[in-house]
Specification:
Strand content of chain A: under 5%
Number of strands of chain B: 0
Order of helices and strands of chain B: HHHHHHHHHHHHHH
Mean pLDDT of chain A: 86
Largest sheet of chain B: none
Helix content of chain B: over 70%
Helix content of chain A: over 70%
Oligomer: heterodimer
Order of helices and strands of chain A: HHHHHHHHHHHHH
Shape of chain A: globular
Distance between the termini of chain A: 45 Å
Largest sheet of chain A: none
Structural class of chain A: mainly alpha
Number of helices of chain B: 14
Number of strands of chain A: 0
Low-confidence stretches of chain B: 1-13
Distance between the termini of chain B: 52 Å
Radius of gyration of chain B: 26 Å
Shape of chain B: globular
Chain lengths: 283, 290
Amino acid sequence: MKLPTLREVATEARLLLIGIPVFLWTMIPIYHMFLFAISPKEDAFSGKLWPDHPTLHNFSIVFHQQHYFLRDFYLQFWNSMVIAAAVGVLTLFIATAAAFAISRLRVPGGRVVMNLALFTYFIPAAFLAVPMYRTMGIYGLLNNHWSLILAMVTIASPYAIWVLKQASDKLPVELDEAAVMDGATTPQIFRLIYLPLMMPSLVAIGTYAVLLAWNEYLYAFLLLSNDRDITLPVALGNFLAADDSPWELLMTTGFIYALPPAAIYYAFRRYMVGGLTAGAVKS
Amino acid sequence: MAITLSGDHAMAAPPLSARLTPAQVWGIVLLAPYLLVFCAFVIYPVGYGLWLARHPASYVALYHDPVFARAAVNTLVFLVIGINIKMLIALFLSGFFVQQRTWIKWLSVLFILPWAVPSIPTILSVRFMLNPEWGVVNQLIFKFTGDDGPNWLNDPTVALAMAIGVHIWKSLPFWTLILITGRLAIPHDLFEAAEVDGASWWQKFRFITWPSMQTLYITCTLLSMIWTLGDFNSVYLLTGGGPADLTHVLATLGIRYLRLDQLSLAMASIVCAMPFVLPLVYFMMKRLSR
């Protein structure tokens, strides 16, 4: 075995000197959340780095809804799921149709629509929140799941359309031309040629929209207020309303809430990194 | 009457169908859902918002509201200091993560976690860590020094710095990832040639990495600035705008005015940000729409 040279050791040491702080910086807030989730109340508040008696009791309280703040836990979880799924499906439908129309059918005015969508993408969502809240009130949708679904679709689709348009511009035009020669109608081209070829980008965009909706806090808490209508993040925010908030339960619920998006992200990471970062910033 | 109507129809129809191929008709049909969403949930709210913000009196009231002035300064600090620090770290870390090591590969998988998990539970976790009595930070300070730690979120400067920290924690992985893609796109033989010529790492960075990455870096910085303007969570969930409304940013200020039922002020404060936002947006659109 060859002994490493001094220079190699120095390089490794330098890399570790960066790597260890990066690891700590990344993990501490998450570890702290996990620590609270497995700590009995006394341990959690004592500032220990590992509880004396780690326990799953907090999870059992959450899963049995045995606390005032948790009495609608399953319902809220379900709300989050339904809304995220609906946003994913609707965004995919709207964005795929629009991207196909703009990129493949070259519909007149397509460029203008693309630019309008891009413009919306760059306006910070928080700026649109207040007028959106009023608008939903006027439409009579407040406290209705549709308000949050439609708001999130509005926010998710510009980016979705843009990424899908970039991806479909890369497909060769000859494919469509050959299909037209063979007498294919536009719906057939869409269904038999376009959709199968776009699959990776569609997976990426679907994941993006689902995660965006699942993670959304601001719009959810503006548009939904009824305890039985709200999504999990709003319920988490409501914990803070009390002075003696049960922080260990808050962290446990937060931990459960954070698991699905993390799992989805890692499951589709291949698509996400390829489909989103490549499209996100083009130099 | 019926005959004239159908006659009109027949006369109007040919030019329209002559101009549009069936494919274009389909195109319009497929574009319609988005246009519908756009009109109902972008055009109408924005128009309504602008209409609410039409009174000059709102701007006078904003001008006299110390919370607004403070929020404007905070937003500027957040953008100019916070984003530049974040992007510099991201640039530095992208250089770290392209090193070929197994453990760095694993670290990069973990490093993405803050971006992958929702911000609410993690920000609240940080909030409790900073709790002056029960938080783990001050308990550790007490254990090691015997002194009480600072009341982190009760000092407006420290609280804003913490909010910036939370923002960096959350979005650093995303920007690092993008800068990594930028770095990987640089042809490797450039570095090999520089190595042969005995270039130092600074020279490699200065003459190879930076020239090929600067456009991407500046685009990322501007884009991050635009998006950070809308970062509601980092401030609202950590400090709630407090203490004494001194840590608000523009994104949380609108919600504060909404709570106080001062809708026209909420809209006016957003309109005030537009002279800064629109040039940035215009610049980004020129860059991205090719």
